[in-house]
C-alpha cells in the first residue's frame, strides 16, 4: 500500500514495476558471481588463521609448506609493504589502511580467533589447504578481552598497543577506548530536575552477522607489467580498488576491479579481506591468477559483524506527555581494531523525537572479536532498541497512549538532531499517522491458543541515508535503445531503478535500456552501494546524464532541420520545432550526418541525502512452556520519498524487517570464555526462515525528498531498526516482563517468567 502525502507528477516510468534487467541471467544461473571466476592458469590460495583470540606471534615457520609439491608461494605480513596511516571512505564505514592491512593479515599480534597470520598459493585447492596446515605458528597467548566492561577496566590488557585514544579531544595512550565523543545542547540538569518522571535503563546486545549467502572471495592477477586485476564479491568495486592498492603499495591506477554479481552483502561486503592477499600471492607466484574463497566458519569468525555492546538511556518527561530531556552513553564493540558504528548510532538515537535538551556520549571500544563492519543502517538498530524500550516503559508508567506519545513528541522539519543537524522536510509524522489509520493498529490482538499468550509492540527508527559520488554514462544506439553504464554494485535491482530515472527523462520504455556495471577503468568513480545511496545518488547521476543527452540531441535536431537550437523543444520523448516532430528513438537512426553517436556522462557528489523514517507494529505469541516466540502479524510503515519501483521498495522494507526480527529474537554471536564463536554455522546461528515469518505488511508513505527531482529517499536501511524494540515490547506485553538484553530468546523468556 502506498500513501502519498503530496501531489505527485503523473510519471510514465517512475512508479511502475518493470521486470529487472538482470532477472533472466540470475534465474537461469548464467550470472557470474565471484566464486564463478576462472582464468587461464588459475591456482588456489588458502590462509592460516589464529586459534587464539589474543596472542603475540612469536614465529612463523613456512619451510614445510614450501617443500610440498605444487606450492608456488607463501605469504606473511612481512611480505606486505608498510601501509600509510591514512583513512579511506568505504560506504558506511571508514578504512584505516595501516590497521585494516593488519586486519587482513596480522603483524605482531592476533586480535581475534580466526585472524589471518599466513597464506599460501598452490596448484589446486586441496594442495593449498594441505600446505596451509603445514605452516607452524608459535604464539604467546594473552588474556582475552571479551566485552566493553572488561575492556574499560583498569587492569584490562591493551589490545592495540600503539593506539592513542581520543577521549573528548585529549590524547590518551594505553587504552582500549579508541574514541570518546559528545554532543550536547540545552540545560540537561534543569530539564531532568523539572521532569515528572525520569526513567534510566541500560540495554545490551551481542554482535550480529549480516547473513549473506555468498561467502567472501577474491581472484587476482598481478601481471608482469605491474597491473593488478581483481574480481571480488563486493558492494563497491572502487572501494576494493583503493583498499587493495593502499595495502599492497601501488597507485590506484595500477588496480582494475571487474564487477561480478554479489550474493548478498547488507554492509558486510564493504571491506576487503582477501583481495590484497590474492594479489601478493599472484605476484610471488610469477603472475599466475590466484583465487581464495572463505568457508562459512571463516565468514563468521573473521569478517565484520554488526557491533555489540551496551547503551545507557535516561529520559525525562512531564505529566503532559512531553519529553523534557534525554541522556545516553553508547558503548560499542569495535572488535580487534577501532571503528565501530557508534558515530552513526549517535546521529540516530534521538532522531525520532523533538527534544529541548539532550546529551550523547559515544565510546568506540576494542575487544578481542572480529573487526566490526556495517550492517544495514549501522548503529541505528541498537539505538532504536535503547530509546524505544525506555519510551514504551514511560508510556506504561504514565498511562500515555504509546502511539499518541510518539506523535506528540515527533521530530519534524526544523527539529534539531542530537548532533546538531536540523532536519529539512521529513516524513515521521506522516508515518505515525499512517500507523494510526492502519487496519493493523485498529484491530484487536485476539485471543491466544491455550498455553500461549500474545503481545503487541510499536517502535520507530531513523537513518540519515547516504549521498556521495556516482557516475553514469548513456549511449543512444542506432536502433533507439540506450546503453547505460553505472558504477554502483547492484543489490536489489538497482540497475533497473537507476535506468527508470533516465528513461523517465528520455520518454523511452525502460525495457529499451541495457544497463551494465563495467570495471573501474571504464566508468567514473562511484561510491559503495550502502547507506541507501544507490537509487538516490546514482539515480540522480542517470537523471542528469539523460538531461545532458537531451541537450545534445536538441543540437542534432537543429542541425537536421536547419533551425536554431533554441527553437527545438522536447517533451515525452519527442522533439518539435516549427511544426515538425520526431521521436527520440526514430531520431537515433539519423544521427550519423549530425556528428555520429550521441553520448552523455554525468557525475554527482552529494553532501546530503534526505532522511528516512520507519514505524513498525509487531504482534507475536509466546509459548509459556518453552519460551518460543512466533510472529503472527507484522506491519512496516516507512517514508520512501518516492517509490521508483514499488515492488523493489517493498522487498527492501520486508527484507529489512525480517532481519531485524531475527536480531530481536534469536540471532547472536555466542562467544565462549576463550573468545571462540560457538555457533559459527547456519545450522547453529539462528536466522529466520520463511517458515518463521508471516507476510510482512507494508505501508509506503511518500513524502518527497526535496533534494531529488523525483523525491527519492533511500529505503534499504531503516526497516532493520524498529523490529528490535517492537518485537521485544511484544514479548514484554505477552509475558508481563520487560527485556533489555538482546536477543529475547527462549532461555531469557523462561528465566524472566519463572522468576529467575
Task: Please outline what is shown here.
With 756 residues, this protein is α+β, with helices and mostly antiparallel strands.
Number of helices: 20
Assign an overall shape.
globular
Work out the radius of gyration: 27 Å
Q: Remind me, CATH topology of the domain at 425-465 and 610-753?
A: Aldehyde Oxidoreductase, domain 4
How many angstroms separate the termini? 44 Å
Structure notes:
With 756 residues, the chain is an alpha+beta fold. Among the domains are: 7-31 and 468-606, 2-Layer Sandwich (Aldehyde Oxidoreductase, domain 4), CATH 3.30.365; 425-465 and 610-753, Aldehyde oxidase/xanthine dehydrogenase, molybdopterin binding domain (Aldehyde Oxidoreductase, domain 4, 2-Layer Sandwich). Helix content is 27%, strand content 27%. It has a 7-stranded mixed beta sheet with strand order 4-8-2-17-14-15-16. A hairpin with a 2-residue loop joins strand 5 and strand 6 (93-96). The two termini are 44 Å apart.
Amino acid at each position: 500500500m502506498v500513501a502519498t502525502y503530496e501531489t505527485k507528477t503523473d510519471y510514465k516510468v517512475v512508479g511502475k514495476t518493470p521486470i529487472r534487467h538482470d532477472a533472466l541471467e540470475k534465474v537461469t544461473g548464467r550470472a557470474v558471481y565471484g566464486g564463478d571466476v576462472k582464468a587461464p592458469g588459475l591456482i588456489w590460495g588458502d590462509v592460516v588463521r589464529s586459534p587464539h583470540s589474543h596472542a603475540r606471534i612469536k614465529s612463523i615457520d613456512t619451510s614445510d609448506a614450501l617443500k610440498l609439491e605444487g606450492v608456488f608461494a607463501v605469504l606473511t605480513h612481512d611480505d606486505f609493504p608498510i601501509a600509510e596511516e591514512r583513512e579511506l571512505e568505504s560506504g558506511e564505514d571508514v578504512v584505516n589502511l595501516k590497521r585494516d592491512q593488519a586486519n587482513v593479515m596480522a603483524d605482531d599480534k592476533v586480535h581475534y580467533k580466526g585472524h589471518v597470520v599466513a597464506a599460501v598459493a598452490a596448484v589446486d585447492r586441496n594442495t593449498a589447504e594441505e600446505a596451509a596446515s603445514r605452516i607452524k605458528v608459535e604464539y604467546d597467548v594473552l588474556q582475552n578481552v571479551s566485552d566493553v566492561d572488561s575492556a574499560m577496566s583498569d587492569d584490562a590488557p591493551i589490545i592495540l598497543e600503539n593506539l592513542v585514544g581520543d577521549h573528548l579531544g585529549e590524547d590518551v595512550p594505553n587504552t582500549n577506548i579508541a574514541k570518546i565523543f559528545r554532543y550536547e545542547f540545552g540545560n540537561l540538569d534543569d530539564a531532568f530536575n523539572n521532569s515528572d518522571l525520569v526513567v534510566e535503563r541500560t540495554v545490551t546486545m551481542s554482535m550480529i552477522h549480516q547473513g549473506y549467502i555468498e561467502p567472501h572471495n577474491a581472484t587476482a592477477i598481478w601481471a608482469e607489467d605491474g597491473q593488478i586485476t581483481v574480481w571480488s564479491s563486493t558492494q563497491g568495486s572502487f572501494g576494493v580498488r583503493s583498499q587493495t592498492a593502499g595495502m599492497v603499495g601501488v597507485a590506484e591506477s595500477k588496480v582494475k576491479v571487474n564487477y561480478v554479481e554479489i550474493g548478498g552483502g547488507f554492509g558486510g561486503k564493504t571491506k576487503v579481506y582477501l583481495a590484497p592477499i590474492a594479489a601478493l600471492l599472484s605476484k610471488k607466484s610469477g603472475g599466475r591468477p590466484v583465487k581464495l574463497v572463505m568457508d562459512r566458519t571463516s565468514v563468521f569468525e573473521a569478517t565484520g559483524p554488526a557491533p555489540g555492546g551496551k547503551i545507557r538511556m535516561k529520559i525525562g518527561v512531564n505529566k503532559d506527555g512531553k519529553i523534557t530531556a534525554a541522556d545516553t552513553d553508547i558503548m560499542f564493540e569495535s572488535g580487534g581494531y577501532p571503528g565501530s558504528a557508534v558515530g552513526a548510532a549517535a546521529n540516530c538515537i534521538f532522531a525520532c523525537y523533538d527534544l529541548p535538551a539532550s546529551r550523547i556520549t559515544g565510546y568506540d571500544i576494542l575487544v578481542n572479536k572480529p573487526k566490526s563492519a556495517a550492517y544495514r543502517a549501522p548503529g541505528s538498530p541498537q539505538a532504536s532498541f535503547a530509546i524505544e524500550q525506555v519510551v514504551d516503559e514511560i508510556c506504561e508508567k504514565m498511562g500515555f497512549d504509546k502511539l499518541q506519545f510518539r506523535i506528540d513528541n515527533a521530530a519534524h522539519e526544523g527539529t534539531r538532531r542530537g548532533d546538531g543537524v536540523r532536519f529539512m522536510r521529513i516524513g515521521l509524522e506522516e508515518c505515525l499517522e499512517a500507523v494510526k489509520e492502519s487496519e493493523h493498529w485498529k484491530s484487536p490482538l485476539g485471543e491466544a491458543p491455550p498455553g500461549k499468550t500474545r503481545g503487541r509492540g510499536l517502535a520507530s527508527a531513523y537513518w540519515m541515508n547516504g549521498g556521495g559520488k556516482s557516475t553514469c554514462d548513456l549511449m543512444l544506439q542506432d536502433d533507439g535503445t540506450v546503453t547505460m553504464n553505472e558504477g554502483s554494485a547492484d543489490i536489489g535491482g538497482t540497475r533497473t531503478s537507476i535506468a527508470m530515472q533516465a528513461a523517465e527523462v528520455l520518454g523511452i520504455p525502460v525495457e529499451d535500456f541495457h544497463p551494465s556495471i563495467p570495471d573501474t577503468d571504464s566508468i567514473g568513480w562511484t561510491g559503495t552501494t550502502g547507506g541507501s545511496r544507490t537509487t538516490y545518488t546514482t539515480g540522480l547521476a542517470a537523471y542528469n546524464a539523460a538531461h545532458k543527452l537531451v541537450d545534445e540531441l536538441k543540437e542534432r535536431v537543429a542541425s537536421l532541420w536547419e533551425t536554431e537550437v533554441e527553437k527545438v523543444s522536447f517533451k515525452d520523448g519527442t522533439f518539435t520545432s516549427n511544426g515538425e516532430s520526431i521521436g527520440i528513438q526514430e531520431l537515433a537512426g539519423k544521427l550519423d550526418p549530425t556528428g555520429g553517436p550521441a553520448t552523455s556522462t554525468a557525475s554527482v557528489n552529494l553532501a546530503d541525502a534526505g532522511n528516512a523514517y520507519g514505524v513498525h507494529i509487531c504482534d507475536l505469541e509466546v509459548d509459556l512452556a518453552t519460551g518460543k516466540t512466533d510472529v503472527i502479524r507484522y506491519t512496516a510503515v516507512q517514508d520512501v520519498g518516492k517509490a521508483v519501483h514499488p515492488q523493489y521498495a517493498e522487498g527492501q522494507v520486508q527484507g529489512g524487517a525480517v532481519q531485524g526480527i531475527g536480531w530481536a529474537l534469536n540471532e547472536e554471536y555466542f562467544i565462549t570464555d576463550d573468545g571462540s564463536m560457538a555457533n559459527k554455522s547456519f545450522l547453529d546461528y539462528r536466522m529466520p526462515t520463511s517458515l518463521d515469518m508471516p507476510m510482512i505488511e507494508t505501508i509506503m508513505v511518500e513524502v518527497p525528498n526535496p533534494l531529488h527531482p523525483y523525491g527519492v529517499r533511500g529505503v534499504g536501511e531503516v526497516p532493520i531498526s524498529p523490529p528490535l524494540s517492537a518485537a521485544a515490547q511484544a514479548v514484554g506485553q505477552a509475558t508481563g516482563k520487560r527485556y533489555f538484553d538482546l536477543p529475547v530468546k527462549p532461555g531469557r523468556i523462561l528465566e524472566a517468567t519463572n522468576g529467575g
